[in-house]
Every structure is written in C-alpha cells, then in structure tokens.
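@channel sequence for tomorrow's demo:
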Amino acid sequence: MPPGSPHPPREAREEDEHGMSTRLDDELRRLVSAGVLRQYQADALRDAAEADFSPPGSGTAAAGAASARSARTGGAPAGGAESGGRGTASGGARDGSAGAGGGGAGAPGAGADSRSSRTPPAAPHSSALIEVLGYLGGALLLGAVALLTLANWGEMSRAARISTGGSAAVLLLGTAIILALLRRPDQLSSALASLGCCVTGFTTYVAIEGEAGRVAGVAVALALAIAGLWWLAGPSLLVATFAVLGVGVLVLTSDVLTPDNGTATNSAGIAGTGFILVAFVMGMLGLFRDQVTAWSLAGAAMFSSSICWLIQERGEVMALAVGTAGPAALLVAYSRRHASAYAVVGCSILLVIWPTALYQLTDNVAGVAIGLVIASAALLTAVLLLTRHQRRLIE
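structure tokens (generated this afternoon):
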C-alpha cells in the first residue's frame, strides 16, 4: 500500500485490535477482581467491544463475539451458566450488531423490537378510588333510605313505602348491572347487587304484606341473589345468599311449618334442621365460587343450627353434635387449605356451643369444666396424631 494511503495495512489493524482486546481483558479482569463489576457485566462489555471491532457489513459480528467468549470461558455456550443477567445485558448489543451486518438501517429497529419483546406489558388494575366511592355511595343511599323509613314509617302511605324501596332497589341493581357490563370492579358490582337483592326482597314484602309477603320477599331476594351469583363471582353475593336463606328458614318455620298452637321452643328444632340444609347449600356453592367464604358461611349456618337446637326442648345433645360436626369439618378443611378463616370460625363455634350446651345438660359449672377438659383432651390427642401422621408423610 502506498505511504500516503488513508487506511493502515490489514496486519497493523489486526495487531492494534489484538492489543486493545488484551488491554480490555486485563482491565475488565481487574474490575471483576475488585468487585466493581460482575462477571456477566464484564462479558457483556467485552462482547459489545468485539462487535465494534468487527468490520462493517461482515454480518458475523455477533457470531465472532459469541465464539470469542466461548473460547475464553472454556467452550461454555453464550448465556448458559449466567443466562439470567448476561443474556439481558448483552442481548441488545448482539441484536444491534447483527442488524448492522445484515442491513445497516434496520439495526436500530431490530434492537428496539428485541428489547420491547422482553419488556412485559403493564397489567391493568382497577382504580381503588372508584371502589371506595362506589362503596360510600351505596352505603349512603342505604343509610338514607333506612333513616327515611324509620323516621316516617308510620306517616308514609303504602305507595310511598313501595316507591321508596323500589327506587333504592332499582338504583342499586342498575348501578351493579352497568358496572358489570362495563367490566368495572367485580367486588363493587357484586356488593351493590347484594344490597339491591335485600332491598328488593324487603320492598316485595311491603308491597304484598302478611305471611304471603314475607314468603314472596324471600323468594324474590333469593332468586336475584342466585342470578347475581351465577353472573358475578364476588363473595358479597355469597353473604347475601346466606342471609336470605337464613331469613327464609325462619319465615318458613314460623309462618308455614309451625302449627297455630305451637310454641317457639317446640319449633326451634325445625329451624335447626333448616340451617343444616343451608350449610349443605353453602358447601355446594363453595365448589363453584369463593370457597373460603362459602365454607365459612356454612360453618356459620351450623352455628345457627346449634343455637336453634339449644332453644329446642331437650335439644342439647343435638346442639353438641351439630356444634362439633361443623367445626370438625372446618378444621379438616383448614388442614388441607390452610385458610385461617376455617380455624377462626370452627374454634369460635366450639367455644360458644360446648360450654352452653354442657351447662344446660348438667346445670352445674363443675360439669361444664369436666366436659371442657374431656373435649380439650380429645382435641390435643387429635393434634398429636395428625402431627405424627404428617411427619411420617414428610419422611
């Protein structure tokens, strides 16, 4: 090549590149030893530098950088042992150099597409402000209707009572339906729907009046709650369904199943049986909707049944049986699902039903204490057996 040529000879270029690569390796090795850089960061910088050293238009920059790094690391594939950080750091440089070799102008787009494909899209989330405002609006509306009804119930005509309750029901249910159609927060729409179901049932009772009005109100509220539970998946509709079923058990017991000459102590057992059926229904709903809420409400239904059996004449034994079966099922569910609500509800039922039932049976505080000691010993024995069984499974 002539002395005045603007480009140095090829041998001189290669010698300069080799010298720069050696100095870069020494400097990166020193920084890694000092703890300033991590190994994958040093590899990424080395790959980027080697990609810059490659002649433009060769189309082999990325391959040369990867092969050089493989030679330095003892033949390990690029991104193998430290692919988590190294692949991310050096991927942009390799993509950009490969794009430069393949098409020049397409290099920035290729690198940007690669980086954008690695960035996960932001997950959509509902606004907490919308939910808070919705809850406050529903609560204020219900409070206004309750205050207006309580303050002026005696002076309000039947038409005014029906129009007040109907307007509140339409507003609550209409808002819930609009939110559900717009796919807004499910919790808010289900909460408003549950309030609307209860208000609609009460309005139906006011419109029809008497025993027929109570039965019709329960039926309408239950139908709306089931429809909302089928459409929406919020736990508040499970609570509304449980409340309507509980009111329905009391209404049917007092208005339909209790004879005219019957007393509350003789018909309480019928209500206790009805609450057992409610517990069964809630347990079945737990297989399709929020299981923790549904099964906890099933436990509450068993507690209500136990209370009814305590009111029933000579129903203490049945109260103990129901008050033990429900918590036992919840504690078994807790051992499998580890949901604290099961343990809280189950233990609460035991702590209330057992002392009360034992006191009614023995009419003696000492008898209650003895019974509680026996129950405690049984529970602790069950804990030891379950712990031993679990340890054997682990071993």
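heads up for whoever presents: DSSP finds 15 helices and no strands in the chain.
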